[in-house]
């Protein structure tokens, strides 16, 4: 490598700025969420995966009660709403706490799965988290 690169002699060119194209900005604001509780080392976390944003949110929860999971899920929904996304549907497993909070979030449908159903998107994310832990 020439010495001029290291000493800064080759920096006479101005850096060009990338133009912002509003047409290329993501217009999809509606989000579908998948949520489940993950346990690692006796610590429980509510994990939520957003689609098509591909964002993973996590909140530490003490217990799996309706109040605690409802507050954690409300925090996840609020994060999305603050950034002008609209959570339309939340897919959850058939835990009794999730069945209790089905009607607690106006404008967002809570889809509680049936017996032996699993929430595939968030379960795959939980497996990846546990593999890298």
Could you please describe the fold and organization of this structure?
It is a single chain. The chain has 133 residues and is of the alpha/beta class. Helices cover 30% and strands 29% of the residues. Strands 3-2-1-4-5 form a 5-stranded mixed β-sheet, sandwiched between helices. Helix 3 links the parallel strand 4 (86-92) and strand 5 (109-112). The longest helix has 17 residues, at 66-82. The model has no long low-confidence stretch (mean pLDDT 85).
Give a summary of the structure in a few sentences:
The chain has 133 residues and is α/β, with parallel strands linked by helices. It has helices spanning 3-7, 66-82, 96-100, 120-132, and strands spanning 30-40, 43-51, 55-61, 86-92, 109-112. Helix 3 links the parallel strand 4 and strand 5 (109-112).
Descriptors:
alpha/beta, 133 residues
Main sheet: strands, sense, barrel: 5 strands, mixed
Distance from N terminus to C terminus (CA atoms, Å) equals: 40 Å
Structural Rg: 21 Å
- Helix/strand class: alpha/beta
Number of helix segments?
4
What is the quaternary state of this protein?
single chain
Strand segment tally: 5
